Amino acid sequence: MRILITNDDGIHAEGLAALERIAGVLSDDVFVVAPETEQSGTSRSLTLTVPLRVRQISERRFGVSGTPTDCISLGVQHLIEGAKPDLVLSGVNRGQNLAEDVTMSGTVAGAIEGMALGIRSIALSQALSAEPAENPYAVSETYAPGIIERLLEAGWPDGVIMNLNFPLSAGADPQVEVTRQGLRDVRTRYAEKRTDLRGRDYYWLGYRNIPSKPAEGTDLRAYYEGRISVTPLHIDLTHMPTVHDLKAVLGGAPPKPRTGA
Fold first, then answer.
1. Cα separation of 224 and 244, whole Å?
2. What is residue 43's DSSP assignment?
């Protein structure tokens, strides 16, 4: 099995090294194409206004001056000679990618680009503590290979990726749950205003650690309760119930504005 791996934390990230070890359990045919610098939050963005530069680090490792989407596209179409990869792995992200965060995640986007190119693709993320740990990616390294093997054996439809989230600790009785994408009921993102030494304002975007109350069966609930979450995701964002509702009031010739409106 030929595996292509990428991430959004950059070519030197500890999580990418963990993913290389995970991929190494599954195959000895592994390629790394990852961003030269951190690309967290870039989602599926492409580099269109400047040229992409590729640095070949070794025979099977490449650093790219672009996003995870750029990396997978270049890796599949230009950098890997011979057979196309059988599997794309993206991660292991520094921190979880859950709920609405998946729409902004460069890690998830790397897997989506692999899916768009017709390759089975999986995103992996690891919850981390603020306290230092000897191996912060131990949970994902321990359990990801078996989960990936089981997923590949079971298979899944075209147009779908798998989003894996690993808790801080799996405990003495580790559990896996197949979940749906959740939605936070609190706003955790905020902008902190600061002033530089020249008196000009600037802002840092960040997150507040505010717990929500997620529904049963969601990725958020699994994370809160210490389970490994496996969420099938697809790129179709259409809300079908609203499509059906609107078909009853809109369609055919465009409606004319009401007089005096």
1. 35
2. T
d(CA 23, CA 19): 6
For the record, the structure tokens of 13 come out as: 């990230």
Closest CA to 209 of 187, 239, 235: 187
Low-confidence ranges of the chain (pLDDT < 50): none
Backbone phi and psi for residue 8, each to the nearest 5 degrees, phi listed first:
-120, 0
Task: Outline where 27-137 has alpha helix (H).
Answer: 68-74, 106-116
Of 38, 44, 47, the closest CA to residue 95 belongs to 38
- CA dist 93 and 18 (Å) reads 10
Q: How far apart are CA 60 and CA 176, in angstroms?
A: 32
Can you tell me which residue has the tokens 């692999």? 114
Of 25, 68, 23, 64, nearest to 43 (Cα)?
A: 68
Give me the pLDDT at residue 261, please: 56
Amino acid at site 259: T
Q: In what order do the strands lie in the sheet with 228-234?
A: 54-58, 61-64, 29-35, 2-6, 87-94, 120-126, 160-166, 228-234, 176-178
